[in-house]
Amino acid sequence: MAVVSVTDDPPPRRLADRLRETRSTTFTGRDPQLDEFRTALAGTPGAPVLLYLEGPAGIGKSALLRRFTDMASAAGRPAIEVDGTAVTGGPAAFEAEAAGALTADRPVLLIDAFEHCQGLERWLRERFLPRLPDGAVVVLAGRRPLDLAWRTDPGWFPLVRVLSISGLTPAESAELLCARGVPPEQQPPLIAYANGHPLALSLAAEVTLREGVWQPSQDVTSALLRRLIEDVPSPAHRQALHICAHARGTTEALLRAALPDRDTEPIFRWLRVQPYIEEGRDGLRPHDMIRDVLDTDLRWRDPEQYRAMHRRMLEHLVQEVRTAAPGSLLHRVDAVNYLHRNGRIKRRYYRFTGCGEVTETPVRPGDRTALLDLTRRAEGPESVTLVDHWLRHQPDAFHVHRRCDTDEPAGFLTRLRFGPADERLAASDPVTAAAWEHTRHTAPLRDGEHIEIARFIIDPVHYQRPSAILDLALQRLVGTYLTAAPAWTYTLWSDPSFWDELMTYSQHESVATLPQGGLYGHDWRSRPLSGWLAAVGAEDLFGRRPDPDGVPAGGYTILSRSGFDTAVRDALRSRRDPQRTSENPLLGTRLVAEHPEPDPVAALDLLLHEAVERLGRESEALRVTYFDDLPSQEAAAARLRLPMTTYRRHVTRATERVADRLWAQETATHGEPGVVNNE
């Protein structure tokens, strides 16, 4: 939020005054909109109270808002500026940004990028704006049409003006180019090239002033980018542009992660001042009209560099998810998802709009009736009974999706969790019972492990089809994969024929067909996060799915604790027998597969050596028995000068300690981000 205040005594001249004068002298066209704003400021009878600037990206809405701000200040009116990208959290976030408008005298409230908080329209219309002081003027600027309710409401109808922002006329385009310093004789091809688009004109003017000549192309944006990128200060600056285009928003921390061998501070400063870069809540972002061309250009021109850039960015953003505070988790997950926005499959299931229509909260004490009603409308009475059951037994499993304008529940996700002791509870629902039985028969839970089941995804309006609610539900599920370290995740979809492609893409196999729908599951111990990220990344970037290096074709071997202990004992006993060791099931575990030593047999031997050495004095019996070249246990006991019963007790206890250590390594690695490899 920015507030421009006015006092009785004129303040000393500041840089802001110079910026205002420059904007005034370089601003071009928009006379009808300026006249409407002057009328609104004057407040004469019939004057509008709310102006809505509607137009596509880059058409000049933000520049017009800045001009309105300067006009308001010159008229002695306090101007409160709100960036719509910063208020997607709901009414409280918006009110914090716009608080000055509630207390100022005859304020002018200007909201840019309104499409990012357009889910608040009803709340703004009915609750917030009526609280503004009399004489206030409100200006909204967005890309999507204004809600029809503004014009059908008898109170608002005479006070609202919708002002369409279109391209500049040829005369206005020439005026803009003159203000940018382009000589008149060089202007005609630029005017024809940009077709009245202010951003394209500004960028074309910059290229012309740099090169002294302008040569139009069939593809305005592509040609513009090629000209600009050729003149960047260094290859690192060019990489930074592509990083900025690939991410939803680029912070200096992300830039450092993506360019690890570069001094990124000056590169970030350079990015900030480029005419095609905007600053928002998430960091720097290229203008929408050129983002896709930048991203597509590198993916086509240098796939290997593109893959490496994506991998570094993904590792950084995944780590941000894993360390995020609960309130920012979904926003961090959204940044990860955005890297994969060009994937054919992701585009089918995600909207990627971020328009602030709904927000997620935990279940609240008064939500029960509303959630049961939503369930009844979406799935019927049988599901109502089960939702009521889980509200009583696992209320924390409910993630409620609320309308931003009314705070009322509009849908919800139920993400149930079961550990080894929860078999009876899991059996109380046919879907969770099926998931539990599948886990038990396929790869049972070990101590400390759990499964998570996305049991209900409820949205009566867009039931299990792409929507703002579904975006939040899918983000929450991805957040589970990245942070919760479950042994298994399961998801139930009522229409498997629609969701099967996404489930295959996300490596969730069909495990059961139930009357309630298709149940899909993924064993994160067998196919861990690092391999999962690599697979989906390859699919989204290049439309193919290689089996990730280091992960066996069938996944990792999952052993029970007793089976693991037996395998450790066998591995110690068979150290001198390569053929027998090559058949040990430990070779298929993550413990061995993720060891730096590429030969599995050698890796297992190194792990045994290390575990034995870390026992200290307790390791003597094992070292003599399995690592010294002695013919028998009797010879080992004799060297240790121990009776056979005492010797065997020492060996048994030390073997148990080695198994404990290796088991801790095997299970502790589950859920770690590892290295994302899209090579």
In round numbers, the mean pLDDT is 85
Per the CATH scheme, the topology name of the largest domain is Aminopeptidase
Distance between the termini: 43 Å
Protein structure class: alpha/beta
Order of strands in the sheet with most strands? 9-10-11-12-13-15-14
Fourth CATH level, the homologous superfamily of the largest domain: Gcn5-related N-acetyltransferase (GNAT)
Helical amount:
40-55%
According to DSSP, the number of beta strands is 15
In this structure, how is the largest beta sheet organized? 7 strands, mixed
CATH class bucket of the largest domain: Alpha Beta
Gross CATH architecture of the largest domain: 3-Layer(aba) Sandwich
Describe the structure.
This protein has 32 helices and 15 strands. Helix content is 50%, strand content 13%. Strand 12, helix 23 and strand 13 form a beta-alpha-beta unit. Helix 10 runs parallel beside helix 11, helix 17 crosses helix 23 and helix 29 packs across helix 32. The C terminus is likely disordered. The longest helix has 25 residues. It has 679 residues and is α/β, with parallel strands linked by helices. The strands form three sheets. A seven-stranded mixed β-sheet has the order 9-10-11-12-13-15-14, with helices on both faces. It folds into five domains: 163 residues, Rossmann fold; 59 residues, no CATH class; 108 residues, no CATH class; 167 residues, Gcn5-related N-acetyltransferase (GNAT) (Aminopeptidase); 108 residues, no CATH class. The two termini are 43 Å apart.
